[in-house]
Structure formats: structure tokens, C-alpha cells
Amino acid sequence: MASAGLSWESTLPGQPGATRFSTDDLPERDRVAIFREIVARTVVRNDVEPLSDGPFYVHSTVRALPGLFAYWSKCSPNRLSRGAEFLSDGNDSLVFSWTKQPRLVETLGREIPLAGGDAILTSCADAYRKTMLCPLETVTVSMPRKAFAPLLRDFDACLAHPVRGNSAALNLMLQYIHLLRDESLTSTPELQELAVTHVYDLVALALGATRDAAETARRRGVSAARLQAIKSSIRERLVDGGLLESAIAARHRITPRYLQMLFEGEGTTFTAFVLDQRLARVRSMLASSRFANRKIVEIALECGFGDISYFNRTFRMRYGMTPSDVRNGRTTT
To answer: Beta-carbon neighbour count of residue 54 at 10 Å?
Structure first.
């Protein structure tokens, strides 16, 4: 959708339920007014006030999942406020937001200064004002109060209370939220429901979950978040032919045995996952015209295979064809 020059894409490739918008296409002199009316006041239901003499900008991606909205935004200095004129909409969603930079949050009659890296839970049922005096990078999740609040040990104490940036649960949640941009995590309704449950678990742990919710979260959301973060680390390091289970475990501050258990919970192993990812990357590169001038051996080595005969054998066992067949566009019969 495009409104008055505002770039607003209702879907992202391969990511159903995602929205991306940017103010870049707006004329600078009209940017604030158009953004305020089309997005802030109409869609998000708050007001925005620029706090800088420089250009006003907002770049956001939103993932809409059942029971969860996740936002990743970068914006110029501004003050965001939700006052009496918006409170009548009946929205009582809970908003858990993290920013890389410092900010001041005013709500429930309190002023709450937040350092860079801190997070806070606020309610759309209460008036608030959030002041950001420098360019901002933020991650936000919005959840229905009815679904999320019962997970907290003391809801009133958690509301408008800072979660400091050194919180292990907060950092694990941020890693997991980042991974939600990967379409494979939410490609089916079942995966979407799992992802939302895991986010609830991690946010509740960061804020102060009930005993039962915390125990469940450690078995469910924490394990899922750690495994997804581990998989991401593996994909980034496939070129390392000597990629070791112990090194990945140390990087994520867990024992090798716990790492093994995480993969076993999915019916696989660390070694099998690494092999699968390497084979998939080779196949993708062979099928791409970008790498048409690269030798197959070079691609295999680049993807972490040190033994070419082993690579050829496992590739054929996995895909039922040779690497040359893939490069030449031949398929199995």
C-alpha cells in the first residue's frame, strides 16, 4: 500500500503477515505531517513529535503473528505519546520495548530514565510519553494483556519497571526476536503459534514470571531460543571446516552435553545439522548463475568440506544426483 508517497509494503517476500514502511519517499517538508496522520495517529494510535533539526525519518518492519506484533525500527529523535484522545479506543495491549540508545519514559505518574540496552513494559490502557533525544534503534513486541499478564508473578510491579540490559533473559529474547525475520521459523500456523509462545516465555522470564511459568519457559521458550541462536551461529561459520561442537557450546555458554540435548529434542544431532546446512548451501550456490564460473571443488571447500570424495558421496546420497547434475539443471527421475 502507498499513501501520499509513504512507502508501505503489506508483505515481505516469503514472510506472510509482515509489513515494511519507510518515510524516505516523502517530501521532507511534508514528512512529519503525513507520517503523523497516516501511521502514528491512525494506525499506531499515538502522536509523534520530532526533536531534532535534522531530517525526520522512520524505517520499520512489523511481523504480525497470532497474539503478537513484533517491530524493528530505526528513527530520528522524537517524542512518542499516547494521551486521552487515544485511550478511548479500548486498546489495553502490553508493549515490551527495548532500545539501543537511552530514553525517558513517563507513565503512571512516574519518570523512568532508561539506559541504552534497557527494556520496559508499558500498557496501551495508560497514558505514556517516550522521549528519545538521539537517533534510535528499537525492538518492540506487543501482546494482548489477557494472554500475557497471567504469566507474570506481580503484574503491577512489572509494569513500567526497567529491565536492565545485562539481563540474560532479555538478551536471549532479543536474539530470538531477531530470528523471527527468518521465514522458516513462522512458515506454518503451527510454527507461528510456537514462536509466539516462545516469545511470551522469554519476555515473562525477563520481567519476572510466576514459578510455574518460569519452569515451563525454561523447558520450552529458553531451549527453543538457544537452539535457534546456535543454528544461526553454525550457519555463519560453515566455512570453518573444523567447526566443533565444543566451540559452539562455549560461544553460547552451555555445556556440549546440553547442546547435544537441544538437537536431540528435534530428533537430530549437531553433526547431522552441520552436514545438512553445508549440503544445502552448496546446492544453492550450484543452482545460482552468480557462481557459474566457480569450480564445484571451490564451492565445496568454501562451504566447509575438506574431503571432496566425502562431499560427492554425501551430496549424491542426500539429493539423488551429482553436483554436476545440479549445476547443469538436471533433476532426478
So the answer is: 9
Collapsing DSSP to helix, strand or coil, 11 comes out as coil
Percent of the chain with pLDDT over 90: 49
Distance CA 54, CA 18 (A): 29
pTM above 0.85, yes or no: no
pLDDT digits (tens, 9 = 90+) for 187-222: 788 888 888 998 999 999 999 989 888 888 777 777
Q: How far apart are CA 194 and CA 312, in angstroms?
A: 37
Give yes or no for a contact between 199 and 173, defined as CB atoms under 8 angstroms apart. Answer: yes
* Whole-number Cα distances in Å, 98 to 71, 166, 312: 10, 12, 47
Could you give the angle at the alpha carbon of 152 between the alpha carbons of 19 and 228, nearest 5°?
50
> Distance between CA atoms of 270 and 276, rounded to whole angstroms?
10
Q: How far is CA 317 from CA 205, 276, 298, 320, 323, in A?
A: 43, 12, 20, 6, 11
CA distance 96 to 133: 20
SS3 91: coil
134, 96, 133, 135: which is closest to 118 by C-alpha?
96
Coil, helix or strand for 120? strand
Q: Is the CB of residue 245 less than 8 Å from the CB of residue 285? A: no
Between helix 211-219 and helix 221-236 the angle, nearest 10°, is 30
Residue holding cell 487515544? 86
Q: Are 186 and 65 in contact (CB under 8 A)?
A: yes
